[in-house]
């Protein structure tokens, strides 16, 4: 029996002026005017997260039509990667050009959900630009990769407010993609793709030839 083709839905694409107009094109720092570049992007059904060259994360809530801003204390540095997750709480992970990684646990108006903004930091393992982030579906695990080939695993306990991080893998070339599911971490670098089994701590390379 032939399968019935799903109906085709036509959508119109247009610039998100309501989003872009809420992000400044320049900021004033002392006597200097600094241009703001948009450097990272992630979306889900509830939020649009935009990272910037001034270290500011712009988070647009689609339900409330509101823009909120989050930043790192201290040095103003470019955000290189953002990753949203919607589970019991809404989470966003942010990585920067110097290797800083932070997780923001967002406030929710829904009953039983988080009522206070909290931030967790991945302490000082990465020393270079963050190039990839991946969540576990329940938000208890975060994997981060950098352009020197380091991959860090962070275990989050949102109830206790604890984040414990450790180096789990080190590759000879830059990490370009991470994805996690069912205790297996998919890792792509400039040279190869591999599967890292987190329980056994073993590696299985995909294919035999290195990338050119």
TrEMBL record:
Any one GO biological process: protein exit from endoplasmic reticulum
One Gene Ontology cellular component annotation held by this UniProt entry: cytoplasm
Gene3D superfamilies on file: YVTN repeat-like/Quinoprotein amine dehydrogenase
Pfam family, one: WD40
InterPro entries assigned to the protein according to its UniProt record, in alphabetical order: WD40/YVTN_repeat-like_dom_sf (IPR015943), WD40_repeat_dom_sf (IPR036322), WD40_rpt (IPR001680)
Stated name of the protein: TCPR2 protein
Originating species: Neopipo cinnamomea
Lineage: Eukaryota, Metazoa, Chordata, Craniata, Vertebrata
Gene: Tecpr2
């Amino acid at each position: 029996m032939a399968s019935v083709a799903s109906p085709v839905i036509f959508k119109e694409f247009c610039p998100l002026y309501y989003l872009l107009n809420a992000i400044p094109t320049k900021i004033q720092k002392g006597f200097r005017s600094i241009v703001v570049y948009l450097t990272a992007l992630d979306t889900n059904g509830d939020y649009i997260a935009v990272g910037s060259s001034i270290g500011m994360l712009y988070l647009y809530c689609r339900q409330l039509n509101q823009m909120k801003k989050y930043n790192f204390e201290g040095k103003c540095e470019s955000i290189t990667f953002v990753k949203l997750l919607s589970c019991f709480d809404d989470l966003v992970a942010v990585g920067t050009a110097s290797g800083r990684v932070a997780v923001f646990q967002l406030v929710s108006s829904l009953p039983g959900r988080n009522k206070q903004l909290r931030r967790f930091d991945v302490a000082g393992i990465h020393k270079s630009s963050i190039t990839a982030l991946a969540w576990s579906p329940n938000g208890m695990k975060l994997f981060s990769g950098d352009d020197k080939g380091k991959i860090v695993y962070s275990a989050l306990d949102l109830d206790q407010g604890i984040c414990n991080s450790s180096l789990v893998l080190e590759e000879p070339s830059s990490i370009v993609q991470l994805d996690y599911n069912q205790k297996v971490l998919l890792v792509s670098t400039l040279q190869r793709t591999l599967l890292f089994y987190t329980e056994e701590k073993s590696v299985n390379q995909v294919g035999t030839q290195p990338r050119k």
